[in-house]
Design a protein that fits this description.
There is one protein chain. This protein has no helices and five strands. With 105 residues, the chain is mainly β. It is globular and about 50 Å long.
Length: 105
Amino acid sequence: MTEKCNDQKCYKHGHVRVRGGRMEAQVVSANAKHTVSVERPLTAYLSKYRRWARENSRIIAHNPACINAKLGDRVVIGETRKLSRTKAWTILEVVGQKGEKHEGV
């Protein structure tokens, strides 16, 4: 998993620094080249109805060749500078593979 890559947008082997937020999420789409879509669950309180609502937040993240996260993996992502029009996050590590049980964040 930690093979050398020549990706300039890789935070290990390229010229991108990770700063700002870090979070754990699950990969829900890995169809594009070097790009994944990750999703994390959120809960929001609606005071008018005195109820909790469940929501999902999707973030587009860079997937370096040396990490190569797959669909269903749990990953840690970190905030970077803008890498493209929609990407400002990159995958830092794969925490759990597809099919593994994982306790909440």
